[in-house]
Amino acid sequence: MFEFRLSVLPPSDPLPTDADTTFFWHSKHSMPYFHANVGPRLAEYGLVKSRNVDFVRIAAAVLAADRSASRSGSLSRWNQRDIALTIDVLAVSPWDGVKSDLERLLAFLTGDAWSLKFRREVGAPEQLGSAAAGATRAVLLSGGADSATGALLSALELSGRAEKQVLISSWASTNLRPLQTRVADEIERIAKGSTADHIKVRIARGRHSPSGVAYGRENSTRSRSLLFIALGLAVASVEGLSLWLPENGYASINPPLSKSRRGSLSTKTTHPKFIADLKRVLEAVGAHHDVVNPYAAATKGQMFSLVGDAIGRSGASTFLSSTSSCSHTGARSYGIAPDVACGVCFGCVLRKASFAASGLNDGTHYLEPANDRQRNWLEDKTVVPAMRDFLASPFGESDLARLQIPADIPLSEVAKLVQRGREELGHLVL
Fold first, then answer.
1. CA-to-CA distance for 128 and 134, rounded, in angstroms?
2. Same domain for 278 and 325
3. Rounded Cα–Cα distance for residues 128 and 39 (Å)
4. Which run of H or E residues covers position 57?
């Protein structure tokens, strides 16, 4: 069981004694047990819609619990966790009305059984600020190649109309923030005057609770991007902007490499079913929910080609090579620098294939093992054998049916998208 509270626990106050409950405290101030550079009412961004404030709290609590509840096993043997979570929100009744829908949404995202409870807690007053002034679009910028592509193409489109965008980045790892800043600066250099603001948010659970006991540690964290979307919608809600969530359609659908890689082993944060269900839940509670993936019908290789068409092949190669697609953490303990990609995870393999498919030079620094520890680490992490098996097998109607595509999206178009994605991967892997 987990509880997400807003009040900061003073050192003189007695700690909760419920041994079965893990507590998280959130305030604007960074603490050893919870880090944040924005308050729980999000006033620094302006008059954020109340339900979007709540949604950020819910997403932050879900991620904290997700990171603290360890899984066991591997592949299809990964266990389904039962996670009970109590969350402080501005108003309880709107969320009680969609509780079951939200629990099912989280189950689809993480593969777990969620039980949510809401408790009213407004939080201390915060000084009102402003963000995104003058922007006509909000764009999520993670530092990955897809988000960088979307942000760059959006900037070029808007600058042609003398309009601006606000970029929203979220970071927990200290290595990620400089990367996001460099990418945002390069976008502004290429499309000068296109950036109204670049908002960099940190909301992350620490390593130890106030009692000194270490939180649980789970690295799969399929809910990480939920907080990213929630923060983007919160910023977008101030001016009623559309939020771009750029992700190639093949990765969004994310066909599992094998039957044992379904469920929580497949990331689903930009899956069309997840986005559609999330928008319905947010609309029902009165939250801002204008989120769109403008590249839902494109492969990553096609997105890379669009960058080449927009700024030239040499510039596109340099720009895209400066982003990061590697999904693996913990490489530092193997003596691997943070700017070195593993080259064998799904993100890296898809990235390599996309550079090849678009005809752009890949300047990414991939790991060249220097010792047996690094070679063994790569061998343990690689998806290449599973991807070869996946590409060697036909992908038919029964496989399409398992992808849970919403009824308003023609399966014939999804089939074509999957085929294009498989062809791009096949040129590299087979």
1. 17
2. no
3. 11
4. helix 50-68
- Number of domains into which the chain is organized: 2
Chain-centroid distance of CA 92 in Å reads: 26
Alpha-carbon distance values, 231 to 140, 210, 308, 361, 406 (Å): 9, 26, 30, 34, 25
Q: What is the pLDDT of residues 168-215, one digit of tens each?
A: 999 887 778 999 999 999 999 999 999 999 999 999 998 888 778 888
Look-up of token digits 């750029």: 246
Domain containing 41: what range?
A: 1-293
Determine the Cα–Cα distance for residues 364 and 294; give it in Å rounded to an integer: 25
Q: How far apart (Å, rounded) are the C-alpha atoms in residues 279 and 248?
A: 19
Closest-CA residue to 365 (of 344, 341, 346, 334): 341
**Tens digit of pLDDT for each residue in 311-347?**
999 999 999 999 999 887 656 677 788 889 999 989 9
Express each pLDDT in 79-110 by its tens digit.
789 999 999 999 999 999 999 999 999 999 99
Give the span between the Cα atoms of 416 and 430, in whole angstroms: 20
What is the three-class DSSP state of 266?
Answer: coil
pLDDT exceeds cutoff 70 at 113: yes
What is the gyration radius of the CA atoms in the chain, in angstroms?
21
User: Are residues 129 and 159 part of one domain?
Assistant: yes
Q: What percent of the chain has pLDDT over 70?
A: 94
Question: What's residue 263's pLDDT?
Answer: 40
- Residue 262 in this model has a pLDDT that exceeds 60: no
Structure pTM?
A: 0.94
Query: Residue type at 57?
Result: R
Q: How far apart are the first and last CA of the chain?
A: 46
- φ/ψ of 127, rounded to 5, equals -70, 130
* 120 Cβ contact partners less than 8 Å away, ≥ 6 residues apart: 88, 89, 90, 91, 92
Three-state secondary structure call for residue 16:
coil
Q: How confident is the model at residue 353 (pLDDT cuts 50, 70, 90)?
A: very high
Rounded to whole angstroms, the Cα distance separating 142 from 127 reads: 27
Token readout for 271 is 């899956």
Domain final position from 230, 263, 293: 293
Structure tokens at 144: 């990955």
**Rounded distance between C-alpha atoms, residue 277 and residue 104, angstroms:** 9
Grouping H, G, I as helix, E, B as strand and the rest as coil, residue 199 is strand
281 plus 333 within the same structural domain: no
Please give the biggest Cα pair distance in the chain.
64
What does the pLDDT read at residue 32? 80
